[in-house]
Amino acid sequence: MPEPLERAVFGIHATHAVQLADRHGVFAFLIAHGASRTGNIAAATGTDEETLRRLLIALQAFGVLTGDDRDGYRVPPESAPYLDPDSPRYTGAFLQHLVTSTSGRLPQLADYVARGKARVDADLPAPFDAMYADEGSTATFLRAMWQLSFEVSDELVALAGLGAARHLVDVGGANGPFSVSALLRTPALRATVFDLPHVAPHLARSRDAYGLGERLRFAPGDFFRDELPKGDQLAFGYVLSDWDDDTCATLLRKARRACAPGGRVLVMDRLFDDDGHRPLATAVMNLSMHVETRGRHRTAGEYLGLLRDAGFTDCEVRRSSREKHLVIGHSAPDGG
Ligand SMILES: C[S@@+](CC[C@H](N)C(=O)[O-])C[C@H]1O[C@@H](n2cnc3c(N)ncnc32)[C@H](O)[C@@H]1O
Question: What keywords tag this UniProt record (predicted)?
């Protein structure tokens, strides 16, 4: 079997193996202790040695680990930041979301292929009703959002250039990864996260953890029913990719009404390359968007088109070194 096909066929094992090793502290142990043999890892993590042996062999075969049981298994240095629970790039909550939520939703694709998404979804709860069905799934989802968004936000804040900004309205801002980063880097700024009421206690925890007090406020609301709070920077981080083009147009028109003259909209999302096929993570998450939301991933050109159609001008793309990029639109200084 050609290797790309082999990796795709066995991808289901890979995701579960990585998540299981993460959940049981195998990567954390290897990062802390260096090359280690199965018996030592099993004893330290309290895991069954025979099951762990197979797990480690599979992880080594996928290239997630290097080494072997004679000289010890190791986490390659380039992967360590993503597997180390103490690293800002740690991806454990996202892995947990993939295993506990996404994998349960993927079988829906079979129904979509046979009957079409609209007909199948008509009998299902709305995307965020399912995501926020209980406190456990809400917490896992929001932790995953934080891990996907907080670290890259430093770079996005710098790319956005918020020095002259006064009031950031973070639409669907969740537990605040972008707002917190923006406030930490921009002393004169205040921010309002506008999101569903379920999110309130999670944002409060971020506000308290970073000592942001009154500078970070929460406005509970539903962006389908309510107008957006007014500000000079309206941010949409990983929000427009949850919705179809017509819904994005409605949300961006609301942002236009809420945006102060001379202000800006900041769209931050994964981007497809112009060919609409790469990078791999965007292509795969585009499938996730199909089963978990009503959205899709877009090229930079498609976002620019949505912003211009909503009345924003001087629209431009600023790319980060990571998977989340920035598309900016300006509101005319005369409000026109
Ligand atoms: C994919 S998350 C993005 C979180 C964060 N902005 C980020 O960049 O990581 C989408 C956010 O949109 C919020 N959201 C979904 N439907 C909403 C609605 N009808 N009104 C307000 N917020 C909503 C969700 O609660 C969630 O926080």
Answer: Methyltransferase, S-adenosyl-L-methionine, Transferase
Ligand 1 center to residue 16 CA distance, Å?
A: 27
> Is the peptide bond prior to 279 cis by the omega test (within 30 degrees of 0)?
yes
Q: What is the pTM of this model?
A: 0.95
State whether residue 101 is helix, strand or coil.
Answer: helix
Please report where in the chains the tokens 């921010």 appear, as a residue.
191
Does the domain at 95-331 match CATH 3.30.479.10? Answer given as no
- Tell how far CA 271 is from the center of its chain: 13
Q: What is the CATH number of domain 3-87?
A: 1.10.10.10
- Nearest atom in ligand 1 to the alpha carbon of residue 235 is 6
pLDDT tier for residue 336 given thresholds of 50, 70 and 90: low
Centre of ligand 1 from the C-alpha of residue 243, in Å: 11
What pLDDT, on the 0 to 100 scale, is given for residue 335? 65
C-alpha 315/C-alpha 267 separation (Å) is 11
- Asked if the ipTM is above 0.90, the reply is yes
